[in-house]
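wait is this the right file?? whatever heres the structure
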């Protein structure tokens, strides 16, 4: 089995784009990725793509060209992009193909996500009782975590402050103006302790990657980050995830913990080897908890690290260097690949204004309901 490289990356800016469909934004991203790699759609041997609210991803085919290419639609909640990437990775790693595209895009209506409980195997009453409203779940989960590990509301505010500071430097981010800590902490409370600036919003956008075997990359005379590993894992008994109606006494590991462990083992690396990380920050508390679940610190150590500036650009481990979901918003199909796009820019030294100097190992982790986590580790 050979190595897999990312030789092209494209993104349609995230945010709100009146007059452009989600499909338009996915098409833009694929065309940008192909141009980045210098290859044509007719050269592509396979594609994996996903969208939650903008139709089937293979609806791109008539606009890209009806070449007969294998195109498989992927749907895995907010982890759709990470799952499409894993599928493309496997397709090349197996030796079956040499050149392919992974793509994700979406265009969500304004307002909160309105998930269908029956689509997740839950009774309809669960949603009618308001328990599908994820802002409440996330707030309750971080409240418990803060109580157990001494994390303060100021730390949650500092996560959001960093996100908007970084987003201001990323051309593809939605929120591109810094927001002060006091303004974040004193803004409208959505679900205690999370204020409106501590939540990401449903958004629009598209992201695409061109993947190649090492042999094909050399044949084309190209370079690109190597995928050291990719892993997707789901929840196990006792894990406490979105849509969990209760907390089990016998706790199990989270899907992020087991996906992270699998990806590090596959890559032959550890958390200390990572130079830049993009991790799921649906809200400020998610970034705090995922720092520990991905192995970057012990539970409770985040308070000290964040106040020391360790997760800022220039710190020990810069996290969410393009502003993450808080600044970019969350188009479900595209969000996980947006993280990988940011790492590709960092490892290529193209992240102007937010570059992590000397970055060689990039880590991404996207989380989706009802308990899915996808991790990818890249090497420059």
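ok assuming it is, sequence goes like this
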């Amino acid at each position: 089995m050979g190595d897999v490289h990312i030789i092209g990356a494209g993104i349609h800016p995230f945010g709100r784009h009146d007059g452009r469909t989600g499909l338009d934004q996915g098409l833009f991203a694929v065309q940008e990725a192909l141009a980045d790699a210098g290859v044509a759609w007719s050269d592509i041997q396979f594609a994996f793509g996903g969208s939650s609210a903008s139709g089937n991803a293979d609806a791109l085919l008539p606009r890209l060209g009806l070449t007969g290419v294998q195109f498989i639609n992927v749907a895995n909640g907010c982890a759709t992009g990470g799952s499409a990437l894993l599928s493309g990775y496997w397709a090349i790693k197996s030796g079956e193909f040499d050149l392919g595209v992974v793509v994700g895009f979406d265009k969500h209506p304004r307002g909160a996500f309105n998930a269908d409980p029956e689509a997740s195997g839950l009774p309809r009453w669960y949603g009618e009782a308001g328990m599908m409203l994820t802002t409440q779940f996330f707030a309750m989960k971080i409240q418990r975590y803060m109580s157990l590990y001494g994390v303060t509301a100021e730390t949650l505010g500092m996560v959001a402050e960093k996100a908007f500071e970084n987003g201001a430097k990323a051309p593809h981010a939605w929120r591109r103006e810094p927001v002060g800590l006091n303004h974040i902490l004193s803004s409208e409370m959505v679900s205690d302790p999370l204020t409106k600036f501590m939540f990401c919003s449903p958004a629009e956008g598209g992201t695409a990657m061109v993947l190649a075997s090492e042999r094909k990359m050399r044949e084309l005379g190209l370079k690109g980050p190597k995928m050291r590993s990719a892993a997707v894992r789901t929840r196990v008994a006792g894990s406490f995830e979105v849509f969990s109606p209760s907390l089990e006494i016998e706790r199990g590991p989270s899907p992020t913990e087991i996906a992270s462990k699998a990806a590090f083992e596959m890559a032959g690396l550890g958390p200390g080897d990572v130079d830049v990380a993009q991790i799921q920050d649906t809200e400020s508390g998610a970034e705090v908890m995922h720092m520990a679940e991905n192995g970057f610190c012990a539970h409770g150590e985040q308070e000290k690290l964040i106040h020391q500036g360790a997760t800022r650009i220039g710190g020990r481990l810069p996290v969410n260097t393009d502003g993450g979901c808080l600044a970019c918003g969350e188009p479900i199909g595209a969000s996980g690949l947006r993280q990988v796009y940011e790492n590709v820019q960092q490892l290529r030294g193209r992240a102007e204004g937010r570059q992590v100097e000397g970055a060689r190992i990039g880590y991404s982790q996207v989380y989706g309901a009802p308990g899915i986590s996808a991790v990818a580790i890249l090497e420059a």
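The first strand starts at residue 4 and ends at 15. so i think its the right one actually
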